[in-house]
Design brief:
This protein has 225 residues and is an alpha+beta fold. Helix content is 45%, strand content 25%. The protein contains nine helices and twelve strands. Bound molecules: adenosine-3',5'-cyclic-monophosphate. It comes from Aeromicrobium camelliae.
Length: 225
């Protein structure tokens, strides 16, 4: 199971069995309890991580203490590579949203892998480009979209990664509190709750603790546009 999830990560792109096994043996395991901080924004970074199980949130804190979530990552996703490609402090704080297990690779072990395997370098560039594209969209949405539009988008993005077919719709176990959902959308908890309650009253979603069931995907997609 660990192997399967680990090898979905961009880090293993195009590697044959021998190279994959060699890379895997140079990685270390780590586990986190829910709420535990792996590293803080501003720390020195010397490792990148692949999520094996659970969920990790990447967030930033403003000088007055408000939090903004950049991303929620799940199994097979990687983080901690920015401070390798652009040497400098960690650009965000990584915290476990649920109990989580991870594999880590030292930045010093990454250079030889990139030199020997251009496919891995391409996969990491692809991930960086995807994140830049998504970040551009988020910045655009902060200017052009209202809060309900941003909430719909966030729910659809979470459904893409964590959703599974259920009897009456798509069951999305996001594991986020309402406060964390608000931090992900970049709005107050009250406004985000109001948008969610409105979606629920229209029958588009059903709200459950740390989960949501999407009942009307089409309407939610329309609201996200
Ligand atoms: P690093 O700066 O080493 O540590 C924090 C990590 O968060 C960073 O590497 C990236 O892997 C990840 N990260 C930072 N910004 C974003 C973003 N906008 N979207 C997804 N992941 C991000």
């Amino acid at each position: 199971m660990t192997d399967d999830v680990l090898r979905q990560a961009p880090l293993f792109n195009g590697l044959d069995e021998t190279a994959s096994a060699a890379l895997e043996s140079s990685m270390e395991s780590a586990s986190l309890r829910r709420g535990e901080i792996l590293f803080n924004e501003g720390d020195d970074g010397d490792k990148l991580y692949v999520v094996i199980s659970g969920k990790i949130k990447l967030g930033r804190t403003s000088p007055d203490g408000r939090e903004n979530l950049l991303a929620i990552l799940g199994p097979g996703q990687m983080f901690g590579e920015l401070s390798f490609f652009d040497p400098g402090p960690r650009s965000a704080t990584a915290t476990a949203v649920t109990d989580a297990s991870l594999k880590s690779l030292g930045h010093d072990a990454l250079s030889p892998v990139l030199n020997e395997h251009p496919d891995v370098a391409k996969a990491l560039l692809n991930q960086l480009a995807g994140r830049l594209r998504r970040t551009n969209e988020v910045v655009g949405d902060m200017v052009f979209s209202d809060v309900p539009g941003r909430v719909s988008k966030a729910l659809l993005d979470l459904a893409d990664r964590f959703g599974r077919e259920a009897e009456d719709g798509i069951y999305v176990n996001h594991d986020l509190t309402q406060e964390e959902l608000a931090q992900l959308v970049g709005a107050s908890r009250e406004t985000v709750n109001k948008a969610l309650a409105d979606f629920a009253s229209r029958g588009w979603v059903r709200l459950e603790p740390r989960s949501v069931v999407i009942l009307d995907l089409e309407r939610l997609q329309k609201r996200a546009r």
